[in-house]
Structures are given as structure tokens and as C-alpha cells.
């Protein structure tokens, strides 16, 4: 396993396992009332992930009136699963560690700071 992070416009982290990788990217700092967007892309060359779950400070994030979660499943060879978590109006309580985890138990995380 290895971890590689790069700061471009936002933080991008890739966690790679034997035959699999998971990447999380998105908003690192947001102002109260602004929008935050996090994306998780997972690929497993042997058995493509079918589901990505989101966690905030250890608690499962579900779709609600405060956020949207969309998922795209690519059926191509070496396909991927992409999940996006959007928070249209960030609140102070949205600060913290966000983890995306596949049904294969691979995971990556990103910390959101709210000002």
C-alpha cells in the first residue's frame, strides 16, 4: 500500500493497494454558507467496487435536505466507481474528517476546515 497526496487547486490523495486504488479530492476550506464538494474515485482491477459510502467524523453520511450524494458506475474494463458528496450551504458543524470507503473496505480521507 502507498499514499500519495498532491495540492493542485485542491488536495488530491491517492491510496493504492495491490490491484486497487482509491482517490479523494475536493474542498479543503470553506466559508459558512458556501458550497463544499468532495469526490471519491475507486478502482479495483480484479473486482470493481459496487458501492462507496461517506463518513463524517466516523458517522455514516446519508442523503438529506442538507447534502446530495451521487454515484456513477463505469462498466468498462478497468472501470471505476465515482461518488460525489455536495454540501450546498456549509455550516460550522460540517468541519472535520470525511472518509470515503468502498464495499471492499478500501478508504481515503480528507479534512474540511470551515471558517
From TrEMBL:
Residues 33-111 form the Ig-like domain. It comes from the Eukaryota. Pfam families: Ig_3. PROSITE patterns: IG_LIKE (PS50835). Keywords: Membrane, Transmembrane, Transmembrane helix. InterPro entries: Ig-like_dom, Ig-like_dom_sf, Ig-like_fold, Ig_sub, Ig_sub2, Zig-8. Gene3D superfamilies: Immunoglobulins (2.60.40.10). GO terms for cellular component: neuron projection membrane. The chain crosses the membrane at residues 6-24. The keyword Transmembrane helix applies. GO terms for biological process: synapse organization. The keyword Plastid does not apply. This is Ig-like domain-containing protein. It comes from Magallana gigas.
Amino acid at each position: 500500500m502507498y499514499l500519495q497526496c498532491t495540492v493542485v487547486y485542491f488536495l488530491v490523495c491517492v491510496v493504492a493497494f495491490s490491484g486497487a486504488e482509491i482517490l479523494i479530492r475536493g474542498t479543503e476550506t470553506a466559508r459558512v454558507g458556501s458550497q463544499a464538494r468532495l469526490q471519491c474515485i475507486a478502482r479495483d482491477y480484479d473486482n470493481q467496487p459496487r458501492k462507496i459510502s461517506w463518513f463524517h467524523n466516523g458517522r455514516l453520511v446519508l442523503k438529506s435536505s442538507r447534502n446530495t450524494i451521487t454515484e456513477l458506475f463505469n462498466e468498462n474494463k478497468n472501470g471505476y466507481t465515482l461518488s460525489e458528496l455536495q454540501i450546498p450551504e456549509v455550516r460550522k458543524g460540517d468541519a472535520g474528517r470525511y472518509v470515503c470507503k468502498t464495499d471492499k473496505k478500501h478508504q481515503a480521507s480528507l479534512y474540511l476546515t470551515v471558517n
